[in-house]
Amino acid sequence: MKKIKKIKIKINGKFSTINENLSLSIFLKELKIPLKKVAIELNQEIIDKNNLKIIKLKNNDKIEIVHFIGGG
Amino acid sequence: MINDKLIIDKKKFNSRLIVGTGKYKSMAECAKAIKLSGAEIVTVAVRRVNISDKKKPLLMDYIDPKKITYLPNTAGCFNSEEALRTLRLAREIGGWKLVKLEVLGDKKNLFPDMIETLKSTEVLTKEGFRVMVYCNDDPLIAKRLENVGACAIMPLAAPIGSGLGIQNTTNIKIIRSQTKLPLIIDAGLGQASDAAIAMELGCDGVLANTAIAKAKKPFQMALAFKNGVIAGRQSYLAGRIEKSIYGSASSPKTGII
């Protein structure tokens, strides 16, 4: 059986180890992120949510997921 | 008074009070205070989603963005780059084009860095944002912000969260006289009378957060601010009497027994 290669990514400032070739769409689904209420950045570039399925995560990718919170 | 609306970027609002959503004990308290204040616009911050604790309540679950206008704010940004990044992300969340720009320059007094603010206003406006700009109470800088496309001028009353009230009424009057843009006093108010004073100076609205959220009774203060803004606006529209150093009797001099 072929062993699945693992990669290291950073999400909201924390390291995480995931399977190689995982799409951003599946990754966010696993995290149960409410897509309509957030914005996503991949390596400092804002991601169009329509493209989540075609983006494959790579080693050392940096993901930021933000939403609105209370503020002045 | 029915037709006396606050107009920002062609949108009409009945309330001239904008409230911040920070510093409340809970989301429920924040939501109730907003309701009592009558505010139709609230400022919100953009921050990381808590990945490890997804049970944490979301602001949108308590304050419906379809009913209350969310005004994404760049509070906590100390340079143009951070502010631009924050507002581009905010636009992505829900398609918001109306935003509040706040670029701070000093961690102690939280005064705005107007060089970075001016630069950011210009970039954001070119990108199609409608930018309400937090600024110093400086008429020259207010004019420059207007020239680069700001859609509202938001001078501070005093340092953010200080509760000192308007420190420079003269400058606010000068800014009022030179601009037709919405003029909204942002930051530094402490009590409802401060909001009334801002409105009496001819401002179009006020923004309050700490004064309400950190009052001993936030709900009562939310209501007081609502009434303060209404009273101040009505007083401004009514037109005050001339000031005189002499007395002027209220009762007629004729028919005195």
Report on the architecture of this protein.
- The complex is a heterodimer of chains A (72) and B (257).
- Chain A has 72 residues and is mainly beta.
- Chain A has a single domain, classed as Ubiquitin-like (UB roll), CATH 3.10.20.
- Chain A is built from one helix and five strands, in the order ββαβββ.
- Chain A has a five-stranded mixed β-sheet with strand order 2-1-5-3-4, with no helix packed on it.
- Chain A is globular and about 55 Å long.
- Chain A starts with 5 loop residues before the first strand and ends with a strand.
- The mean pLDDT of chain A is 88.
- With 257 residues, chain B is α/β, with parallel strands linked by helices.
- Chain B has a single domain, classed as Aldolase class I (TIM Barrel, Alpha-Beta Barrel), CATH 3.20.20.70.
- In chain B, 37% of the residues lie in helices and 17% in strands.
- Chain B has nine helices and ten strands.
- Chain B is globular and about 85 Å long.
- Chain B starts with 5 loop residues before the first strand and ends in a 19-residue tail after the last helix.
- The model of chain B has no long low-confidence stretch (mean pLDDT 94).
- The interface between A and B is medium-sized, with 24 and 35 residues.
- How far apart the termini of chain A lie comes to 55 Å
| CATH architecture heading of chain B | Alpha-Beta Barrel
> What is the number of beta strands of chain B?
10
CATH homology-level superfamily of chain A: Beta-grasp domain
Main beta sheet strand tally, sense and closure of chain B: 5 strands, parallel
